[in-house]
């Protein structure tokens, strides 16, 4: 299929400014005959059509990529939306596409059906993917192009880009072991969370390979909120002195901050008396007391890769990589 | 113009499920003749057309709203993007529109020209508005429907929704005056910032009406970063004891956090030895030591209002309100 022809590309080919092309094609100014000729020739050679809707009608493509995100509650923040949208938008633009974002209503896929049936998008990037994800099964069944940012059921074969959460927890926990910690606790997500299970698996793996035991009391599972991180850490720090963890790894920075508050209540100086590591590298985490050691996800690369793979699929090509796993990195500051 | 007719509305009118309508209209299942009849009648009465592109061709509308945002640098965070996008998307959806977001390249408006010329959007919401904003002058000149989230040059008349930043600073500064502070400093934005000037005007107004002097050394102007807030506060706290401010108001939470770090270096306990107030109510601000007193902007209402006004304009109607000014609120915690 032909790439999107823009006024910009016509201007570039004709060697004149965007404004000149726009005004000449809209009959708003007079220019030298040879300039006009050059512009019309460039437009014709590139197959430029002034109205994108008319063009879409001809090609039967919307040149739109649907993307839905899970809106956060007003007192929380989506740490990755800006970076993820920005990187997707730049990559999409380079391929002649725009994004069509819509809020994701967990468990409902009518928006997806409708966008397909009305021809408003040519493909989807989906995020906040979980086990038995209805969007994955719908899009696989409809054979509609999509890329998931995240994995789902292990038996389902579909294109995805994901961050290696297990690898992230191996790095964080391994760092604590190297510092001499032997009793390490975890602020983890519920057992029905696919992302949470991926991360905690890395935690158990590295402890096992180091020959360290994990007391089941040291694993707290709950929502990724400040409140849960705070209450869970209070319980962990309430254990007898020689049985309580000397270090905590949290599955999110927000939970880790709850842990820092609980430690202060116990008169513990974080970084000296207890080590705490987060996950996200939220921009504010560098300004905490103490600055938070955490795991940073390559969000921009993930957004770029999702669109790159999707563009191949929308063109009917086999993508170079169908399963992309990106490595997160450990950002060491003074909380651990 | 007719509202967008969706499969959902056909299903609702016919009293059957979305899936049934979809499958019947696509010839994928057999249903009872009276059910089929009811669906076809509902589709016809509502004017449902299965392909949105074909429908756009007929109505010459894209049913898209362009929105560009200024991507933040990787170590900063856009405090409002999620809330603003969510509220716009819900309001747009209710009116039959979708959003088309694209990254804003400061000072460049070719993306805007191209989206208009190719008919890909029916209107714009613009944000990060400044003095002499090229987008405002372009869209006014093209008489293309748009609503600005923010004001620009006072002589330009165009539809906007804005938060009353001056009112916010009056609340913050007035609160400090009531607590007995007489030497109040400000971490302000550069003089070419329209939003910054709006906010600082409220600061001067309320001090003047309280008969309090402002030493010019107490006003620091710079970027809204942690680093600037930190360095500026170090300078302010370096003034002789009886000449230095006892309270600081910052134009952003990030600057305020820089101020908290500088105060700790000076062995000052924030909230007791010095008062600091931010602006934004960033989600993390509630978890700081001490939790930050700050100004919260009604972002969801702003997003909703922008789309509401724009939808009127796109329909060729006069909007009920062309200039909307929303009041921010003071969130008191323990930093002041």
Q: Give helix % range of chain A.
A: 40-55%
Termini separation of chain A comes to: 53 Å
The succession of helices and strands of chain A, N to C, reads HHHHEHEHEHEEHEHEHEHEEHEE
Strand order within the widest sheet of chain A? 2-1-3-4-5-11
Helix/strand structural class of chain A: alpha/beta
Number of strands of chain A: 12
Q: How many helices of chain A?
A: 12
CATH class of the largest domain in chain A equals Alpha Beta
What is the overall shape of chain A?
A: elongated
Descriptive keywords:
homodimer, 336 residues, 434 Repressor (Amino-terminal Domain), Rossmann fold, six-stranded parallel beta sheet, four-stranded parallel beta sheet, 41% helix
How would you characterize the overall build of this protein?
The structure is a homodimer of 336-residue chains. Chain A has helices at residues 7-14, 18-25, 33-46, 52-59, 81-94, 110-117, 134-141, 165-178, 194-209, 226-237, 253-265, 299-314, and strands at residues 64-69, 98-103, 123-126, 146-149, 160-163, 184-188, 219-221, 247-250, 275-277, 294-296, 323-326, 329-331. By secondary structure, the first copy, chain A, is α/β, with parallel strands linked by helices. Chain A has three domains: 7-59, 434 Repressor (Amino-terminal Domain), CATH 1.10.260.40; 64-162 and 299-326, Response regulator (Rossmann fold, 3-Layer(aba) Sandwich); 165-296, Rossmann fold (3-Layer(aba) Sandwich), CATH 3.40.50.2300. Chain A has a six-stranded parallel sheet, with helices on both faces. In chain A, strand 8, helix 11 (253-265) and strand 9 (275-277) form a beta-alpha-beta unit. In chain A, helix 1 packs across helix 2, helix 8 runs parallel beside helix 9 (194-209) and helix 10 crosses helix 11. Chain A is elongated and about 90 Å long. The N and C termini of chain A lie far apart (53 Å). The mean pLDDT of chain A is 90.
